[in-house]
Amino acid sequence: MLSQEIERYLESLDSQRKFSPHTIRAYARILQDFKDFLQDDIPAEKLNTDLMRDWLWSLKENKKAVATQSQAVACLKSFGKHLVRCEKLAHNPASAIKTPKKPQRLVSFLSQKDILLKTEFGDSENTLRARTVLELLYGTGLRISECANLVWENLNFTEELVRVWGKGSKERIIPLTKEAIKWLCKYKDFQSKNAIPCFPKNFVFSKNGEAPYNTRKLYSDIHNLLRSTGWEGKASPHVLRHTFATHLLENGANIVTVQKLLGHSNPNTTQIYTHVSAEMLKDSLKQAHPRG
Question: What domain range includes position 75?
Answer without folding.
Answer: 2-85
